[in-house]
Amino acid sequence: MRTRVTAAALSGLLALALAGCTTPEPEPTPTSAFSSEDEAFAAAEETYRAYVDALNQVDLSDPETFEAVYSWTTADASAGERRSLSTMHADGWTVTGQTVVQSVELESIETEPGAVRIAVCSDVSAVDVIDESGSSVVAADRPPIQSSSVTLTSATHSPTGLLISAIEGGGHECGQ
Predict the structure, then answer these.
(1) Is 150 in contact with 164 (CB distance < 8 Å)?
(2) Which pTM value belongs to this model?
(3) Can you give the pLDDT at residue 107?
(4) Residue 146 placed within a domain
(5) What radius of gyration do the chain's Cα atoms show?
(6) Which terminal residue of the chain, N or C, has fewer Cβ atoms less than 10 Å from its own Cβ?
């Protein structure tokens, strides 16, 4: 049976370091680094867009390209990316096309522990994942626009002050 890549895996991909070659991620440091809700949201959006830019630059044949993705993630998101990218690399898959962020909206801000949650809509219609035999592993019924809920946590070692700690399928509507 042909393996299928879920929309969440592609978004969280695209929506991957070699198994056994990972180092533990430092835990984010809680901080109230933002002076306003607008500032926190701007940092969250900047972080997420930088993460997607890094995903769009991944070359599954070159694990060194995964490091930019890892630099924007922590906790569950980092672990998930490491598993996913490592598996796709080991399976000899390739990615074509790019994810385009359509919209980012604020869901919530928690000053303790310094978390921001955003609702994201991303266009993945141009993204395909090809296995070693040249066949697509993307489900034929994958929606072209993906809804995600992204949690970002305060981190002093991030250029934006935030890192992505979780990405889940979103419960919000995205325009098709």
Answers:
(1) yes
(2) 0.82
(3) 95
(4) yes
(5) 16
(6) N
